[in-house]
TrEMBL record:
Protein name in the entry: cytochrome-c oxidase
Record's bilayer topology term: Multi-pass membrane protein
Subcellular location: Cell membrane; Membrane
Biological processes per GO annotation: aerobic electron transport chain
């Protein structure tokens, strides 16, 4: 980089295209919830568009980095950008956890006649507060038949995800020490563990719908269960795709012991997803 100037691309179409693709996903998801399967094609198109934009955008950034266009100030920009992105994700999941705690701590007791707004019990005088809520106050809504035991599939997925953070840390340390083979092998293990987590969660969702009666329409418990674990599962899928991309770069000889922020950013994201799951396991499955 000549003169130490801050590199700014001439123009980039990727932010606009990414926004349009994500908008298509949201439009498809909304249509799916309101009108049924009619929203699936739009949602799938949006998802494929997001993957395409991510691939091409990553390609351009990798090319710029490998061309020597980035310096220490660009590195700080990437770190700040990733830090703020993860902060936004923290706030995103904080909203879901806040909803869960509000329902359990305030709304349900109010409907049962307790607390400052216990007058709400007049709506459904026979309602008894409990969690998990298997019998919603409105009898027109069918609650779940039963809930998952946290000590079976949820525990297995917890062990898998915690193990994946360990294998990713070993891979990162190997890269920092210059042991590229170690980094490649342990990163491959991380990708495999992430894939196993996704597969097990998919099986769990099948069991929820077919055997437990846990659906998005099964009252507040079903809604919060799928919103919280579903969005987390989406983050695991995205994180696994990112790790596959990073693994490809490691195999191709990218990164050095002192210059590998893309690897670090992927690790930050993955560890954040791991921490969120521990919260989900604790407050959605156990308590």
């Amino acid at each position: 980089m000549s003169g130490g100037s801050y590199y700014v691309p001439v123009s980039s179409k990727w932010p606009v295209l990414a926004s349009l693709a994500m908008g298509a996903i949201m439009a498809g998801a909304g249509t799916l919830l309101v009108f049924g399967r009619a929203g699936v094609p739009v949602m799938v198109i949006g998802l494929l568009a997001v993957l395409a934009v991510m691939t091409l955008w990553f390609r351009d950034v990798i090319h710029e980095s490998r061309s020597g266009l980035y310096d220490a100030r660009m590195d700080r920009s990437f770190r700040w950008g990733m830090g703020w992105f993860i902060f936004s994700e923290v706030m995103f999941f904080a909203a879901f956890f806040g909803t869960l705690f509000y329902v359990r701590t305030f709304a349900l007791p109010w409907l049962d006649g307790e607390g400052a707004k216990g007058v709400a019990a007049l709506l459904w005088p026979d309602f008894t507060a409990s969690w998990p809520l298997l019998e919603p106050p409105d009898k027109a809504i069918q609650g779940p038949h039963e809930t998952f035991s946290p000590w079976h599939l949820p525990l297995v997925n917890t062990l898998i995800l915690v193990s994946s953070s360990i294998t990713l840390t070993v891979a990162h340390e190997g890269l920092k020490e210059g042991y590229r083979t170690t980094a490649r092998h342990w990163l491959t293990g991380t990708v495999l563990l992430g894939t196993c987590f996704i597969a097990i969660q998919g099986f769990e969702y099948h069991e929820a719908y077919t055997h437990y009666g846990i659906t998005l329409q099964a009252g507040i418990y079903g809604a919060t269960f799928f919103l919280m674990t579903g969005f987390h599962g989406l983050h695991v899928i995205i994180g696994t795709i990112i790790l596959i991309s990073i693994l490809g770069r490691v195999i191709r000889g990218h990164f050095s012991r002192d210059d590998h922020f893309a690897f670090e950013a992927a690790a930050w994201y993955w560890h954040f997803v791991d921490v969120v799951w521990i919260g989900l396991f604790t407050f959605v499955y156990v308590f």
